[in-house]
Specification:
The protein is of the alpha/beta class. About 45% of the residues lie in helices and about 20% in strands.
Length: about 300
């Protein structure tokens, strides 16, 4: 197969069209014209020999091939940024710096990352870390990394959510689930169950099915924070992982589920190319150092 040469500006055009949903909006973002953007996309499609966008009155939507192309484009553009950052850092004495994009589910962003980022900023003040909270449903945080929207994702890692084959990563900690209920209630297991979508995963499903005392959820919340608030208000009980129970209000009580309790594995994922970069390596070191002490404080 012959080599296809694509210029960075062509990759930026693909990303802009995908992000903006059309040629006109992409042109405005790029400071170009609609015809120039359309011409550039057609040129890339000719080079690759595939249709990347479906055109219509609604705008432009990536085809399946287009989604893959855009993901690769984001990742290539990111590595070009890293090349500039790390090359300049080497020439100027080796200080690590530049942007670092992190995707995390809610409880990890609230309770796991803050001490890690504080330590990272102290050691490497040149790193500009940003955190995007992503629901751990469907592609979740790993999807953000695979699509080139994040450099590293804090993800739940289980049999139904393994590390995608194009990414690498590792488990940082394994957190136990516990029963949380209104404090002082004499029979907490008799209460209605409060749950949220992200709690339905393989690491609890088998255990859950074997518990005849757990009713079908009658109250569903948007996220684990809302679940905890509802339980605190006396609306029911919930079964939640340790990170989600950090800072549980005094109106709640937490009861251990015994030696057979379910657990949830939390880890990180990144791309093979970003795993070798200075900023991601520095973040992974801090995550490994701080993850277990942070969990022990839950």
């Amino acid at each position: 197969m012959s080599t296809v040469d694509l210029a960075p500006q062509e990759l930026r055009t693909l990303v802009a069209v995908a992000d903006e949903g059309g040629f006109s909006a992409a042109a405005a973002r790029l400071g170009s014209t609609q015809s120039a953007v359309s011409h550039a996309v057609r040129g890339v499609e000719c080079k690759l020999g595939v249709v990347l966008f479906e055109r219509g009155r609604y705008g432009a939507r990536p085809t399946a091939a287009g989604e893959r192309a855009v993901a690769h484009a984001r990742r290539v553009l990111r590595m070009l940024e890293v090349m500039v950052t790390e090359t300049r850092a080497t020439a100027q004495g080796g200080e690590i710096g530049g942007p670092l994009r992190i995707a995390a589910f809610r409880s990890a962003a609230l309770y796991l990352l803050p001490p890690v980022l504080e330590r990272l900023a102290s050691r490497h003040p040149g790193i500009e870390a940003t955190v995007t909270v992503v629901r751990e449903v469907g592609p979740g945080t790993a999807g953000e990394v695979a699509e080139g929207r994040a450099d590293l994702g804090i993800a739940t890692i289980g049999t139904s959510s393994p590390i995608p084959p194009e990414l690498i990563g590792d488990v940082l900690l394994e957190e136990p689930y516990a029963l949380v209920h209104p404090a002082g209630h004499p029979h907490p297991r008799s209460l209605p169950l409060v749950d949220w979508q992200e709690n339905c995963s393989s690491y609890t499903r088998q255990w859950w099915a074997a518990q005849d005392w757990i009713p079908t959820a009658t109250v569903r919340a948007e996220d684990d924070g809302a679940v905890l608030s509802m339980v605190s208000s006396g609306l029911g009980m919930a079964i939640m992982p340790a990170l989600s129970l950090t800072g549980a209000p005094p109106t709640t009580a937490i009861t251990d589920l015994g030696p057979e309790r379910p657990t949830r594995r939390v880890g990180y994922v990144t791309t093979p190319e970003l795993a070798a970069t200075a900023a991601v390596r520095a973040l992974v070191r801090e995550l490994r150092t701080r993850a277990k002490p942070q969990l022990s404080a839950v």
